[in-house]
Amino acid sequence: MKKTFFEKPPSNIIKNTLSEVQFDVTQKSGTERPFDNIYWNFFEKGLYVDIVTGEPLFSSKDKFESSCGWPSFSKPIQKEHIRFIEDISFNMRRIEVRSQIGDSHLGHVFDDGPEELGGMRYCINSAAVRFIPEKDMIAEGYEDYLSLI
Questions:
Q1: pLDDT tens for residues 79-134?
Q2: Residue 100: Cβ within 10 Å count
Q3: What value does the mean pLDDT take over residues 7-25?
Q4: Active-site residue, from 14, 120, 123, 132
Q5: Going by C-beta distance under 8 Å and a sequence separation of 6 or more, which residues neighbour residue 100?
Q6: What percentage of the chain exceeds 70 in pLDDT?
Q7: Where are any strands of DSSP class E within the chain?
Q8: Is 54 within the bounds of a domain?
Q9: In a domain, 3, yes or no
């Protein structure tokens, strides 16, 4: 079954489906603790999707070690699946990254990534994404993204 349609569930379903940390990060623009999250040092082959909607966001091929304590990616799979918002909270000027359909807060993007990968670092909260291993991508409907892994 090919997955082609993604939609944001009603807020009561989101609240009842996500863990407290996932809800805080995605719905309240929170941040999980660095070095204390599931994907910061995780490097298996697969796809990272929005925890709320399943929108495909990042490929393991574009993940790199940044020593920041959160998963870091050089680029999203498709820019159309990401929204960028200026964030001036905490007396800082940053660019927030949100999923397009789910409007989930994912993290921030910085221009201090590896030059050989394009120079960008998408610093993403593990709590905002779900990892789909390469071996499960067809069964979960993400076969169109296998060539990007």
A1: 899 999 887 676 667 799 999 999 999 999 999 999 999 999 999 999 999 999 99
A2: 18
A3: 95
A4: 123
A5: 55, 80, 81, 82, 83
A6: 94
A7: 46-50, 56-59, 63-64, 72-73, 82-87, 94-99, 105-110, 121-124, 129-133
A8: yes
A9: no
Tokens 């990616």 correspond to 73
Is 1 inside a domain boundary? no
Catalytic site includes residue 123: yes
How many C-beta neighbours within 10 Å does residue 119 have? 12
Tokens of 143: 């076969």
DSSP-based three-state secondary structure for 132: strand
- State the pTM of this model: 0.93
As for how many domains the chain has, the answer is 1
Indicate whether 52 belongs to any domain: yes
Check residue 87 and give its pLDDT.
74
Domain assignment of residue 110, given as a range = 11-148
